[in-house]
Input
Amino acid sequence: MILFPDTAGERLDAYLARSVPELSRSGAQKLLEEGNVTLNGKKAKKNDRLNPGDEISVEIPEPKKVDIAAKEIPLEIVYEDEDVLVINKPKGLVVHPAAGHQEDTLVNGLLFAKAGELSGINGELRPGIVHRIDKDTSGLLAVAKNDLAHTVLASQLKDHSMARTYEAIVCGNLKEDGGTVDAPIGRHPTDRKKMCVTARNSKAAVTHWEVVTRYRGYTHIRCRLETGRTHQIRVHMAHIGHPILGDTVYGRKKPELGQDSQCLHAGTLCFAHPRDGHLVIVHADLPEYFQQVLQKLNKMG
Output
């Protein structure tokens, strides 16, 4: 892949992340570190500054073959065609293999159900995975079945044209009927497993929310993501003083109403089909755990 920048002064890693849909900033930096990028014929560094007329050569290596076990795991596929499938992920299922979860992830299930039908752009550990949702968040996840679909869907994620709507129950009563949280999110300065609202080493993050129903001490809301930062809705709602029910990481430390993990569901996914651009809208009803909480809240009055 040959690229010719038309602006001056931009860092090379930032330019690559902006110009190549399947690359994140960290992915671009990894390519640079591994020597897969040249600038005007010489090995490039991530902090090289660009000028108009520069020639950038990028080689994205084929994904490595690794031994990830295919395992029969029940997967609820709610939409599928030759390019894309959408899964309604249950709460508690990890998306891809990591420490502590090597054979019981959504990827293991995909390799069993769809062997040979998944894109390879996102590497050997995440075949087909375009985006992810937290282990304890339920709901819709798009999976690419080929590299064309992966590239187009990744581009939609990057330019925010893929619409993702979530349902959540938050602690407390929101005064307004709707609003927007526009606050940058970055890694927590002392707890590397957490994210936080911060101006330091952060990325822009925007969450739009609206009230669905108010209850005594809690509010059922619907959130639309404009960006897709790690733990975004959880961090943003905690930031405005209304953490998600059951989120003992960012909110109240003790379980409430029988919930010891966040009450958050990715209910609607909308994207332009990667092959012909027609609009695909997929909806997943509220799962049983969410409905049980709403029943408890209704009884509370």
